[in-house]
């Protein structure tokens, strides 16, 4: 998997959802987890939903406001929100360096958060999903976009052509110098 990503939420109030988001992020290989303006009293109950013990493996950042958020240089903030002008997830090109932020259980991303986002994507559903389910779908889509898989079959079943193994070439020297013992065909 290329690049890195983080997963987080704004305004969460249920500790079980924090645990579910952390476990989902951990399962898909997140680099860190974050919350913004969370109203959760400790992470004790969150660990009931997070049997992978992700706090032992992922840094957790708890910011009080959108203004406090800090991301690595080059990281694109991607909001997940069901709005008319959001990009539909199946058509979205995931940035290599991204932080995905989802809204609270009974609400939406704040206007301040949406304004801060580089992109806003939506899962094409009739109504909003549970925050944990939404996170899993977005991260699965990212995984499919940036992972190395054979092209999906146009008919039912497995792909007809397996993914070819990558072939590494010889080092490239700007001076035009040849590598002894390498004929360029390996």
From TrEMBL:
<comment type="similarity">
    <text>Belongs to the class IV-like SAM-binding methyltransferase superfamily. RNA methyltransferase TrmH family.</text>
</comment>
<dbReference type="GO" id="GO:0005829">
    <property type="term" value="C:cytosol"/>
</dbReference>
<dbReference type="InterPro" id="IPR001537">
    <property type="entry name" value="SpoU_MeTrfase"/>
</dbReference>
<dbReference type="GO" id="GO:0002128">
    <property type="term" value="P:tRNA nucleoside ribose methylation"/>
</dbReference>
<dbReference type="GO" id="GO:0008173">
    <property type="term" value="F:RNA methyltransferase activity"/>
</dbReference>
<dbReference type="InterPro" id="IPR029028">
    <property type="entry name" value="Alpha/beta_knot_MTases"/>
</dbReference>
<dbReference type="GO" id="GO:0003723">
    <property type="term" value="F:RNA binding"/>
</dbReference>
<dbReference type="InterPro" id="IPR004384">
    <property type="entry name" value="RNA_MeTrfase_TrmJ/LasT"/>
</dbReference>
<protein>
    <submittedName>
        <fullName>SpoU rRNA Methylase family protein</fullName>
    </submittedName>
</protein>
<keyword id="KW-0489">Methyltransferase</keyword>
<keyword id="KW-0949">S-adenosyl-L-methionine</keyword>
<dbReference type="Pfam" id="PF00588">
    <property type="entry name" value="SpoU_methylase"/>
</dbReference>
<dbReference type="InterPro" id="IPR029026">
    <property type="entry name" value="tRNA_m1G_MTases_N"/>
</dbReference>
<feature type="domain" description="tRNA/rRNA methyltransferase SpoU type">
    <location>
        <begin position="9"/>
        <end position="140"/>
    </location>
</feature>
<keyword id="KW-0808">Transferase</keyword>
């Amino acid at each position: 998997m290329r690049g890195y990503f983080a997963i987080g939420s704004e305004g969460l109030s249920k500790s079980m959802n924090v645990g579910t988001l952390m476990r989902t992020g951990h399962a898909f290989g997140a680099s860190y987890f974050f919350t913004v303006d969370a109203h959760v009293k400790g992470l004790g109950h969150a660990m009931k939903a997070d049997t992978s013990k992700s706090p032992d493996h992922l840094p957790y950042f708890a910011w009080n406001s959108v203004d406090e958020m800090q991301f690595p240089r080059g990281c694109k903030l991607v909001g997940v929100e069901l709005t008319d002008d959001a990009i539909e997830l199946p058509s979205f090109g995931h940035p290599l360096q991204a932080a995905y932020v989802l809204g609270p259980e009974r609400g939406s991303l704040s206007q301040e958060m949406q304004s801060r986002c580089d992109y806003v994507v939506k899962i094409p559903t009739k109504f909003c999903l549970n925050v944990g389910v939404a996170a899993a779908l977005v991260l699965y889509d990212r995984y499919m976009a940036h992972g190395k898989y054979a092209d999906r079959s146009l008919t039912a079943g497995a792909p007809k052509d397996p993914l070819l193994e990558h072939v590494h070439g010889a080092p490239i020297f700007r001076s035009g110098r040849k590598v002894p013992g390498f004929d360029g065909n390996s």
